[in-house]
C-alpha cells in the first residue's frame, strides 16, 4: 500500500518534469522557425541598425503604460526575430513603469504621460540618470454614440462641464442640444489617458463620470448608450470607427474645432494630441551594448510599428531629434 | 372514527405539502441558476475563441500582430510556475496539518495557530502578492523569477490545503488510530501507514481546489511584475516567465478587437489545462478512496 502511494507520487512528478523538458526542447524549434519567417518579411526595415549584440549583457526589461505596450510589443518581437534577443516587457501602467525604473528592475519605462515631479525626485534619490525619448503620438479621442446627431464639436469648457458633473443634461452644455441626460464614460485613474485628460481639460480638478479599468469597456459603453460620451486613446477609436462618432475639439486658444484625424494628431494641430514616451536608464544605455542596439532599433522602427498597431507615428524631424539623444558608444 | 376530522387534516396536509414542493423547486432553481450562468459563459467563450484555436496558437509566442499571437510562452511559464508551487505547497501544508492534528499539544498556542491559518485563507491574493514582492523579489533578491512567483502562490494556497488536510485527518476514525498504536506502532508508523493513506482523498480535494485557484491567479503576478511579453521560455526557476492569466488579461486590454477572440481562446486553453490537472488528481483520489 505504501509503495503505491510513493509510486503515484513519483509518477506524477515524472510526468511534470517530462512535460517541462519536452516543451523546452520543442521551444527552440518553433523559435528558430518563427525567426526565419519573420526575418524574411521584416529584413529590410532594420538593415541600418549599426549596434552590436553582446551575449554577456544583462537581460533587458521594460515595464509601463498599457497604451504604449502594443507598439513596444511589436518592436520586441521584431528585435527578437532579427537579433535573437528576447526582451522582457510588461504593460501594467505608466506608474508601474516608473516604479520599475526607480527600483532598477527595468532599463526602460513606457509612459503615456510626461514624468511627474515626484518621479523625478525618486529617480534622483535612487541615483538614476535618465533620458526621455518620444516613440509615437496619440490623440486622446472624444466620441459619442453614432445615433447622436447634435454633437459635432465641443470646446474644452464644454468638456469640463460634462466631466465635472456640472452638466446633467445635454441641454446644459449648449442651448440647442436636446434635454437628454448625459452619461459620461472614461478610463479610470490607473491610466495615463485619465491623467492626461484630467490635466489638460479638467485643470487637475478630477474627472467625474463612470470610470472603467478596461478601456474596451469604455468603448462598448458608448456604443451601447445613445446619450453617452467617452474618451480613450486614438487606437481604440481607430479599431471601432464604424460604431463611434468622433467629436472635433476646440482648444481654448483658437476658435476652430479640429477633427481627430491621423494628420491632425501627427502635427499636433489636434488639441488633445500627446506624445508617448520611453524613459530610459542612462547607465544601462552606456554599459549594456545590447540595450543600446535595442533602443536604436526601437527608434528607427518606431514609425512603422506605431502605424501597424493603429497609432500615429512621429514626424520625420522629431524622430531625427530622438535618435540624436542616443549616446555614441564609439567614444 | 369521529376522533379524526378529515377536513382539518386535509387542510393542514396540503399546506405542508405545497410548502415542501415550493422549497424543493426553490432549491432546484438555485442549483440551475449557477449551472445556467456557467453554461452561458462557457458557450460564449467557446464561440468567441473556437476559430482561434489551432496549433499556431499553441506554439507561437505572444505578438502585437493578431494573426501571429500565440499562447506558447504563457502555457510553458504557467507549467513552470505550478512545478514550483505544487510541491512546495503540498509539503508545507500537509506537514503543518499533520503537526497540528497529530503532534501538537492541545493548548492555547495551538488553537491560536489554527485560528490564524483559517483566517489566512480569507486574505485577498493582492496581499500575498505584496508579501511576495517584499520577501522573495526584493529581500531574497529572486527578482520576478519562477521561484519568487511560485513561492508566493504556494504561500497563498497554503491555508486552503492546510484546512482541508486537517479536516481529512480528523475524519480518520479514532479506533483505527488507537488500534495501530495498540499494536505497538510508533506515531510516525501510524501517520505514514494508517492516517495519511486514509486521509489522502480529502487532502487531494483540498489540493485540487488550491491549484485551480493558483493557476488562474493574476493579482499577485501583477504585483510581482511578471512580464506580459517574453519571447523565451524559462530554462531554470531563476528565469523570468509569462503566465496564462496575465497573458489573457493583457489581451483583453488590447485595442484591436481581434484580441478579444484570442483572449477567449486563451481562456479555453487555461480551462482545458486546469481540467487535465484536476482529472489526474481525481484519478489518484479515486484510487485511494476505494481502500477505506
Automatic annotation (TrEMBL), chain A:
Which organism was this protein described from? Jeotgalicoccus coquinae
Q: Belongs to which family? A: Belongs to the PstS family.
Kindly indicate where the leader peptide sits in this chain. 1-22
PBP domain: from which residue to which, for each copy?
57-300
Function per UniProt? Part of the ABC transporter complex PstSACB involved in phosphate import.
Q: What is this protein called?
A: Phosphate-binding protein
Subunit note: The complex is composed of two ATP-binding proteins (PstB), two transmembrane proteins (PstC and PstA) and a solute-binding protein (PstS).
What's one GO-annotated cellular component?
plasma membrane
**Molecular function terms, GO-annotated:** phosphate ion binding
Protein keywords: Cell membrane, Lipoprotein, Membrane, Palmitate, Phosphate transport, Signal, Transport
Q: Which gene encodes it?
A: pstS
Biased-composition ranges, Acidic residues, are 25-41
How does it sit in the bilayer?
A: Lipid-anchor
Q: What is its main location?
A: membrane
Question: InterPro entries, per this entry?
Answer: PBP_domain, Phos-bd, Phosphate_ABC_transporter
Taking the record's annotation, the residue ranges forming a coiled coil are none
Q: Where is this region: Disordered?
A: 25-52
Q: Which GO terms describe its biological process?
A: phosphate ion transport
UniProtKB/TrEMBL annotation, chain B:
Name of the gene this protein is made from:
pstA
This chain belongs to the protein called Phosphate transport system permease protein PstA
Looking at the Swiss-Prot or TrEMBL record, what is one Pfam family this protein matches? BPD_transp_1
User: Known InterPro entries for this protein?
Assistant: MetI-like, MetI-like_sf, Phosphate_PstA
Q: Membrane-spanning regions, if any?
A: 21-42, 71-100, 120-141, 147-169, 190-211, 259-284
Domain ABC transmembrane type-1 intervals: 75-280
Which domain of life does this protein belong to?
Bacteria
Taxonomic lineage: Bacteria, Bacillati, Bacillota, Bacilli, Bacillales
Q: Give the Gene Ontology MF terms in alphabetical order.
A: phosphate transmembrane transporter activity
Its annotated compartments are: Cell membrane
